[in-house]
Write a structure and sequence with these properties.
The complex is a heterodimer of chains A (108) and B (115). Chain A is an all-beta fold and 108 residues long. Chain A has one domain: Immunoglobulins (Immunoglobulin-like). Helix content of chain A is 0%, strand content 46%. Chain A contains no helices and 11 strands. In chain A, strands 2, 5, 6, 9, 10 and 11 form a 6-stranded mixed beta sheet that branches. In chain A, strands 3-8-7 form a 3-stranded antiparallel beta sheet, with no helix packed on it. Chain A has a two-stranded antiparallel sheet with strand order 1-4. The termini of chain A are far apart. The model of chain A has no long low-confidence stretch (mean pLDDT 94). In chain B, strands 2, 4, 5, 6, 9, 10 and 11 form a 7-stranded mixed beta sheet that branches. Chain B has a 4-stranded antiparallel beta sheet with strand order 1-3-8-7, with no helix packed on it. Helices cover 0% and strands 48% of the residues of chain B. Chain B has one domain: Immunoglobulins (Immunoglobulin-like, Sandwich), CATH 2.60.40. The model of chain B has no long low-confidence stretch (mean pLDDT 94). With 115 residues, chain B is mainly β. Classes of the chains: A mainly beta (108), B mainly beta (115).
Chain lengths: 108, 115
């Protein structure tokens, strides 16, 4: 069965420190993975997707099929990065399976 | 341009009451999704439309849940005889086309509280 696991419910770092939000998946097909972010009082929005291999707001994520992971990383966290982060797996051609989310707090 | 719009933003229903939640997707978006997000959880898939066709309703938790998109634009999620376990945020999302590498845009959600 398809599943997305985000082992950390809460993550707290200081401004300027590196941050890594973990995501592991279980899926028998070819995975397509995403990171969504929800800032306070805002709607859920796409941060990045593995297919694009892009860096958004300094964040990157690399798909590791051997470890079935798609961890989100940023070398120097900023206070405005504080938000809920959800890892998601596209199943079939359309629907998304989400992890439970990690709340990131960046302290000044 | 306007994003995905959901109404009402908040709904309080008495147990046993029927509710209807509305979603206005981004104009021209073919795909429309409903997700349910319980407190402290990630969104969970309910159902998916491609234009007016409901192609996947595997996530609907019971036959009390019904969704429609009759003209391929606005969608309504109806919950009959609401129960306390239905309390959650209901999210609607739309995307321009089907297939891979398409971004889903989410609405603000409707927070349903069943008392």
């Amino acid at each position: 069965a398809q599943r997305v696991t985000q082992p950390e419910k809460l993550l707290s770092v200081f401004k300027g420190a590196p941050v890594e939000l973990k995501c592991n998946y279980s899926y028998s097909g070819s995975p397509e993975l995403f990171w969504y972010v929800q800032y306070s009082r805002q709607r859920l929005q796409l941060l990045l997707r593995h297919i694009s291999r892009e860096s958004i707001k300094g964040f990157t994520a690399d798909l590791n099929k051997g470890e079935t992971s798609f961890h989100l990383k940023k070398p120097f966290a900023q206070e405005e990065d504080s938000a809920m982060y959800y890892c998601a797996l596209k199943v079939g051609s359309e629907k998304l399976v989400f992890g439970k989310g990690t709340k990131l707090t960046v302290n000044p | 341009g306007a994003g995905v719009s959901q109404s009402p933003r908040y709904k309080v229903a008495k147990r046993g009451q029927d509710v209807a939640l509305r979603c206005d997707p981004i104009s021209g978006h073919v795909s429309l999704f409903w997700y349910q997000q319980a407190l402290g959880q990630g969104p969970e898939f309910l159902t998916y439309f491609q234009n007016e066709a409901q192609l996947d309703k595997s996530g609907l938790p019971s036959d009390r849940f019904f969704a429609e998109r009759p003209e391929g634009s606005v969608s309504t999620l109806k919950i009959q005889r609401t129960q306390q376990e239905d309390s959650a945020v209901y999210l609607c999302a739309s995307s321009f086309r089907t297939g891979g590498n398409t971004e889903a845009f989410f609405g603000q959600g409707t927070r349903l509280t069943v008392v």
